[in-house]
Design goal:
The complex is a heterotrimer of chains A (592), B (373) and C (475). Chain A has 592 residues and is α+β, with helices and mostly antiparallel strands. Chain A is built from 19 helices and 12 strands. In chain A, a hairpin with a 2-residue loop joins strand 1 and strand 2. The longest helix of chain A has 39 residues. Chain B has 373 residues and is mostly helical. Chain B is 72% helix and 1% strand. In chain B, helix 1 packs across helix 14 and helix 2 packs across helix 11. Chain C has 475 residues and is α/β, with parallel strands linked by helices. Chain C is built from 15 helices and 14 strands. In chain C, strand 12 and strand 13 form a beta hairpin. The radius of gyration of chain C is 29 Å and the shape is globular. Classes of the chains: A alpha+beta (592), B mainly alpha (373), C alpha/beta (475). Chains in contact: A-B, A-C, B-C. Chains A and B meet through helix 18 of A and helix 6, helix 7, helix 14 and helix 15 of B.
Chain lengths: 592, 373, 475
């Protein structure tokens, strides 16, 4: 029994000096904006000529990476003797015990002399064809050709003239090589070279890009993420063709070394937010990390609260929209769900379709979703409260009908409700695992027939079936899966509160719920923005959707560097054109 | 309590102020006003509102040099520990009496409305539990929660008024001057105590930082709560005329009971339990927080969280002290509300003006000297 | 070691807390009452009792008969099976609730009571003591209608057998809300009664109800003939039995004749008062409506109260006048005598046009009251077939109608002031608006000077629409 938490409520202990992260507005943001605009132009010109960004990424990656347990071969430099290298690689990868590690020895012609070499890759992870065509072929066959070059150093010679592949890196230490091979790379060792070439030739079997499973829309793109990190980042980059979109790689997990990508747009997102996310990601020390669900629980502010503090989405267009608002996204290899932070209460009710359909319809839908969430949370509790405490509220006809149907039922209302709720949860859970074609039919049949049978057997009253069904349907209408789940659990607390003290109990429950939500922070942003604290001005993420051509500013609470999203009049065709008077014509002709 | 990091906006403060003052509309305030003024309740409310706005104007004008200081800091500026203690004792008296009496009345309300047979301590527990959790979470949570809840309460209030006002008879406002102008204007002056909820701004002044905000919050908050009280008193008088209006213990409950639209919308008063109960819990949270904040700051305590349980237990016990409901109502209307304005208005004005007058006191000069160095 | 002690202490504290909270919440569902644990009262009746002060009648709903929708044919015999009626003698209403628990298995809930019926005896003695009890209780709706019954309340409630509704509460609600489409009924929710009883400037009214005075056995004409033949032939088996039967028969016959005589008497009285040989639709009050229906209960007219005691009652015409002056009037069908053909009628659908304008002054210690009514009407029927729709001749029927309405309004106002001294239209409230302080108002002493009031009534009718026929042609 965890006495620590309970103890801390009743016996006061001084809080540890934990850093409380608050997303503050930078006072120099506005100045920075003008500066960055000027600097942007310069940088654009520079980057067009120098493709240096990749190297920068690599350097930062090598500096910051601190694995939990020492990878074998860390900081051991690769020697020039091929036999020693071969020995080392054979012991490290347990060749020939490890069946799928392929070791190919061959010879390269350099300066008209054959030099022994070998290549290592893991079959299944590396693309065989690419290895054969682009690495082995040039080295083995094309090195025979008369290459006009004056480079004598082996490394530079091979790199510049013989490795006919794009993503080649030179590794000086063994650990880099091992890492690369582990993740589908191919390493080439050449005798006399104090280093090795590593090529990224990933080519394993994976799922195709298909429809997103959870977020279906009628109007909008139908692509969803799959499990490959590079494919996912490519999908996002395809939408935001912005050079300021930065995709940082961070490796998390000792055994799994899962690469995660931290995405943000550099001149929009608030720096402190990005730093905070990066700090949290880098300070995770765990064994393995399989899915973004685990990652979410590791970096969110509090796992006890009923609502999620990050948005998990499967759609690249949604991620792109959030990024352009100034949020930060984290993608993980092996998971089709991308995490977007910070989240706030209003985004729990947003679906990506809201931007694509016209704004009155999307506002109506948001209202429906909100009502559905309220129903799924409160309806059984209110039913118990009304029938047990506030009978005078019901119209007399309805009351007599309920009394008549309850006359035959042996259980009190609260027991009835709990039975029905639990059986509904049972059906729901079982429905996930029922095999094949029986699945959906059994769900519907189960609900209907069981319900009818229960009513006929006088175990429950008919009105309760309706209530439980409406509650269940309401929880499906909430777009965010975690939030709906939270409501499903809180529903039981409201039932008990309603049975204890009627509406007073439910009011207390609502008040405490509101307090907890309001106190919650998601990455430094208070969770219930924009309702409390109240943000002033027209902002593009709120409870109701603004007209598309009116959404000029980015959300205020993100404290982005650049506030303006579109100019005041974004539809230029609205401005009437000037009529040509005689004066104007003269001026025009003068200009021309 | 880190003053620099906590930031409370204008809207949240206004909501807290409204929560403190307009909760009385759900208790016995319309009845009290009807007793004090006959059928001219609306006139009395406007008169009291004007006076309290004037007094607040004076207060905020006197506050000018003290930006970013709350009332404890100002007392310290004036005379150090003794003055702080006086302020503490006076305001703590206000807090304890106000919250325990309100708690008792709201619990009795609930017993009348729905929970007839439950013991009073059981019902009181619900309110205290809500206030407890709110105080544990701190002023930020309370202010944001009020920014969310007070508009909902206000909407519920407007719905109630709109549904009932059709039954009103304009003749019930007669006679115009009610029980007589002399009694109305002179003898009812102590009733400005109903607007004493503005003291929340004296506590959260450091979190709003500027004097401009201080002024805005006070004026808009008082105006908003005055509006709510005016509308409720007018509706109550219109629907239930003078001599009968002094009989009902729960005026707004009685109004809610009279909602009758066709055969379906009847007896909907229990829906208003949501708004009334949340208003009550919010009122208690804010008031108890004021008490805690003053206490902790006066004695220089870094954390006020350990005090929350003790305070709540004391207030819970105090609320059970009056023997019966009429005596609790009597204590509140005749004793508490008659003398409250002395502490919240007169004492505050006195304190601020003394601070301004004695600006050249040696202790202050020393401080200023130290600052300059 | 201290840590261990703290740990133990904590565990104890936690267990204590769970115990307390569990206790409170589990046994503490104090007020929670299941829907099927309550018996719902639809209507209550208060009579004078022999053993105790009053006899309280409750009409309880039987939900199983009312609410069962599966497989049964709509509740069998309508409203009669869906309620049970019980009476108990007790000193006050609440003590009746206490006593009733000895034979009713469920707890009584008054939350859905729609009407409370007082007998005339109780109303003439003092009604306010029971009104106070009902006003103080939170279970009662403020909209319970106060009904005064000329017969015993118990008899009235027993005779309420709604044919169109299964739910008796619905019957009461619909019946007592019918004032919105007829003029001869009005409403009297208890909150208005309570407020009016406590105000100086107004007096309360209650809805008048009774059982129809015509024969209390419902037989078809053939059955009546058969019985007459049997009585004439007089073939009965034995002498003693014959005597008894004859006696019983005689007393029953006497009752019937008594009732018939009473009925004739009342009708005669009305004819005298209204100076009409054939009565109009608005001349009746509850109990003497000349009709035939198996349901004996009827609601028509108002009972007028002064200082909590019943002072008199109003018939249909006076109720229309009351509604008009109070502004509650919506529309009603009214019959008037044709101005040119003396034995034919014309019928108008008289609606309200504007709010009534009332002015009250005090001259020489006597209230001088002006009432101005503006009405509009549609022509429903012109029996003589004359072309009254012609705008030139329209004024004829307008004038006839105006005169008739003015007459009965003046009659009504005189009745309230001279005969009953009860200001039910609320003129006192208008007088109050002219005072500046409560003191001035109290000095006027309205309750006593109302009987000396002088009335000036001005009625205007404008006929707007003649229905489908815009012209009557002589064929």
């Amino acid at each position: 029994m965890n006495t620590g938490k309970l103890k801390s409520i009743f016996i006061f202990t001084e809080p540890e000096p934990k850093e409380q992260f608050i997303l503050k507005e930078n006072e120099t943001d506005k100045k920075k904006e003008s500066d960055s605009n000027k600097a942007k132009i310069k940088i654009k010109e520079q980057t067009k000529s120098n493709p240096q960004k990749n190297d920068d990424n690599e350097k930062s990656r090598s500096k910051d990476k601190t694995p939990y347990h020492l990878t074998k071969g860390e900081n051991i430099e690769i020697v020039g003797e091929l036999d020693k290298n071969l020995e080392f690689i054979k012991t490290v990868f347990y060749i020939p015990q490890n069946g799928d590690v392929v070791l190919r020895e061959f010879e390269v012609i350099i300066n008209k002399k054959p030099v022994p070499a070998f290549a290592v890759y893991i079959d299944g992870l590396a693309d065989r064809k690419v290895v054969a065509d682009n690495i082995l072929n040039p080295l083995m066959v094309l090195s025979n050709l008369d290459i006009k070059s004056e480079v004598t150093d082996i490394m530079h010679f091979v790199k510049k003239h013989l490795m006919a592949y794009g993503q080649i890196m030179v590794a000086k230490t063994y650990d880099k090589v091992i890492e690369e091979i582990n993740f589908g790379g191919c390493a080439v060792f050449i005798d006399g070279m104090r280093g090795a070439f590593t090529a990224d030739v990933k080519g394993w079997e994976h799922r195709n890009i298909s429809r997103p499973n959870t977020e279906l829309v009628i109007r909008g793109p139908q692509e969803g993420f799959n499990e490959v990190l590079r494919v996912n980042t490519a999908l996002v980059r395809k939408i935001l063709k912005d050079e300021d979109l930065i995709v940082e790689t961070i490796l998390i997990g000792e055994r799994s070394k899962t690469p995660c990508s931290l995405m943000y747009i550099k001149d929009i997102a608030n720096d402190s937010l990005v730093n905070e996310v990066r700090r949290r990601l880098k300070s995770i020390k765990t064994d393995y990390l399989i899915d973004s669900g685990e990652l979410e629980q590791l970096i969110e502010d509090s796992s006890y609260l009923p609502t999620p503090q990050l948005i998990a989405t499967e759609r690249p267009d949604r991620v792109a929209a959030y990024l352009s608002k100034g949020k930060v996204a984290v993608m993980m290899h092996g998971s089709p769900f991308c995490l977007v932070m910070p989240a706030c209460a209003a985004s729990l009710f947003h679906a990506s379709e809201d931007s694509y359909i016209r704004f009155p319809y999307s506002n109506f839908l948001r209202l429906v979703r909100f009502l559905a969430a309220t129903l799924s949370l409160l309806l059984p509790g209110i039913y118990v409260a009304v029938t047990n405490f506030h009978v005078e509220m019901l119209p007399t006809d309805l009351l007599l009908a309920i009394a008549a149907s309850r006359e035959k039922v042996p259980f009190p209302v609260i027991v009835e409700i709990l039975i029905m709720e639990f059986s509904f949860e049972l059906i729901r859970e079982a429905g996930i695992r029922i095999p094949g074609p029986i699945g959906p039919t059994l769900g519907i049949i189960g609900a209907l027939i069981l319900g009818q049978a229960a009513v006929a057997a006088n175990i429950v009253s008919p009105i309760l079936i309706i209530i439980v069904a409406v509650t269940g349907i309401g929880s499906f209408a909430v777009p965010n899966f975690s939030a709906a789940f939270g409501f499903r659990i809180l529903r039981f607390i409201y039932i008990i509160l309603g049975a204890i003290a009627g509406f007073l109990g439910i009011t207390l429950g609502l008040f405490l719920h509101v307090l907890l939500q309001v106190d919650q922070k998601s990455f430094g942003v208070p969770f219930m923005t924009p309702l409390a604290p109240k943000a002033v001005g027209i902002f593009s993420e709120s409870t109701t959707r603004e007209k598309t051509w009116n959404m000029e500013r980015r959300p205020d609470y993100l404290n982005t560097k650049d506030d303006q999203r579109q100019p005041k009049i974004c539809r230029k065709w609205v401005i009437p054109q000037k009529k040509n008077s005689s004066k104007n014509r003269k001026e025009d002709s003068n200009e021309q | 309590m880190n003053n620099k990091t906590i930031n409370i906006g204008i809207f949240e403060n206004i909501c807290m102020l409204v929560a403190l003052t307009s909760t009385q509309t759900y208790l016995g305030m319309p009845r009290m006003i009807a007793e004090a003024s006959g059928s001219a309740g609306w006139m009395l409310i406007l008169y009291l509102l004007a006076i309290s706005l004037l007094l607040f104007f004076i207060i905020q004008w006197l506050y000018k040099g003290n930006e970013g200081l709350d009332i404890v800091d100002i007392s310290e500026k004036l005379g150090g520990m003794p003055v702080k203690l006086i302020t503490l004792i006076l305001f703590e008296a206000v807090v304890f009496m106000g919250s325990s009496l309100t708690l008792r009345q709201f619990a009795e309300d609930m017993k009348i409305i729905s929970l007839n047979i439950s013991p009073i301590s059981y019902v009181t527990l619900f309110f205290v539990a809500g206030a407890l959790v709110a105080c544990l979470l701190g002023i930020e949570a309370i202010s944001r929660a009020s920014a969310l809840i007070v508009p909902v309460i206000f909407t519920g209030f407007i719905i109630l008024i709109i549904s009932v006002i059709g039954r009103g008879n304009i003749l019930n406002l007669a006679p115009i001057f009610g029980i007589g102008p002399k009694k109305l204007f002179l003898e009812s002056l102590p009733r400005i105590s109903i607007f004493s909820g503005y003291i929340i701004i004296l506590i959260t002044a450091p979190y709003v930082r500027t004097h401009e905000n201080f002024r805005k919050i006070g004026l808009y908050g008082l105006a908003a709560s005055g509006f709510i009280m005016f509308v409720s008193v007018v509706t109550y008088t219109l629907v239930i005329p003078y001599p009968v209006s002094t009989q009902y213990f729960l005026p707004s409950f009685q109004l809610a009971r009279m909602i009758n639209y066709g055969r379906f919308f009847q007896r909907l008063e229990s829906i208003f339990v949501f708004t009334w109960a949340s208003s009550a819990i919010l009122y208690l949270s804010v008031l108890i927080y004021i008490g805690l904040h003053l206490f902790a700051k006066t004695f220089g305590l870094k954390y006020f969280k350990p005090l929350v349980f003790s305070f709540c237990t004391i207030i819970f016990t105090l609320s059970l002290l009056p023997e019966n409901l009429p005596s609790a109502v009597h204590i509140e209307s005749s004793i508490f509300r008659n003398y409250l304005f002395i502490i919240t208005f007169i004492y505050v004005i006195l304190l601020f003006s003394l601070t301004k007058v004695f600006r050249n006191l040696p202790s202050q000069q020393k401080k200023r000297g130290a600052k300059n160095d | 070691m201290i840590n261990n002690m703290l740990k133990l202490c904590c565990k104890k504290v936690i267990f204590a807390l769970i115990f307390i909270i569990g206790n409170i919440s589990l046994y503490g569902c104090f007020d929670s009452r299941e829907v099927d644990e309550l018996a719902y009262v639809m209507a209550m009746g208060v009579d004078k009792g022999k053993v105790s002060d009053i006899k309280v009648t409750f009409q309880l709903a039987v939900p199983a008969k009312v609410g069962s929708g599966e497989g049964e044919n709509g509740g069998g015999g309508g409203g009669s099976e869906s309620t049970t009626i019980t009476s108990v003698e007790a000193p006050t209403i609440y003590s009746a609730l206490e006593m009733i628990n000895s034979y009713i298995s469920k707890q009584i809930s008054l939350a859905h009571a729609k009407a409370i019926v007082f007998s005339e005896e109780i109303a003439r003695e003092d009604l306010t003591r029971y009104i106070y009890a009902v006003s103080r209780g939170r279970e009662f709706r403020p909209d319970i209608q106060v009904i005064v019954s000329m017969n015993k309340a118990e008899d009235f409630i027993k005779n309420v057998k709604p044919k169109f509704e299964i739910n008796p509460a619905k019957y009461y609600e619909m019946l007592l809300n019918s004032y919105s489409y007829t003029g001869v009924l009005s409403k009297s929710p208890i909150i208005d009664f309570f407020v009016d009883a406590k105000s100086i400037g107004r007096d309360p009214v209650a809805v008048l109800a009774a059982l129809n005075m015509q024969s209390s056995e419902d037989k078809s004409p053939q059955q009546v003939e058969q019985q007459d033949m049997q009585e004439q032939s007089g073939k009965t088996p034995q002498k003693e039995g014959k005597n008894e039967a004859e006696n019983a028969g005689q007393s029953k016959e006497q009752e019937k004749t008594n009732e018939k005589n009473k009925f004739k008497e009342e009708i005669g009285k009305i004819k005298d008062k209204k100076m009409r040989d054939k009565l109009y639709e608005r001349d009746f009050y509850a109990g003497i409506l000349p009709r035939d229906y198996e349901d004996k209960s009827e609601v028509l007219g108002l009972a007028v109260f002064k200082s909590g005691k019943m002072a008199g009652f109003l018939d249909g015409e006076e109720t229309i006048a009351y509604n008009m002056i109070k502004g509650l009037y919506n529309y009603a069908y009214m019959t008037f005598k044709d101005p040119e053909e003396k034995d034919k009628y014309f019928v108008l659908n008289v609606k309200k046009s504007r709010k009534p304008a009332k002015k009250v002054k005090i001259e020489d210690g006597m209230p001088n009251i002006d009432v101005k009514l503006e009405l509009e009407a549609d022509i429903l029927s012109i029996q003589s077939g004359k072309n009254y729709e012609d705008p030139k001749k329209l004024h004829l029927i307008e004038d006839a109608a105006t005169k008739e309405i003015k007459t009965f309004i003046e009659r009504f106002l005189d009745k309230t002031s001279e005969q009953l001294n009860a200001d039910i239209c609320g003129f006192g409230e208008i007088m109050k608006a002219r005072c500046l302080t409560m003191k001035q108002w109290e000095e006027i002493d309205w309750q006593n000077i109302y009987k000396n009031s002088k009335f000036n009534v001005d009625v205007k009718i404008k006929i707007r629409r003649p229905g489908l026929l815009i012209k009557s042609v002589n064929g």
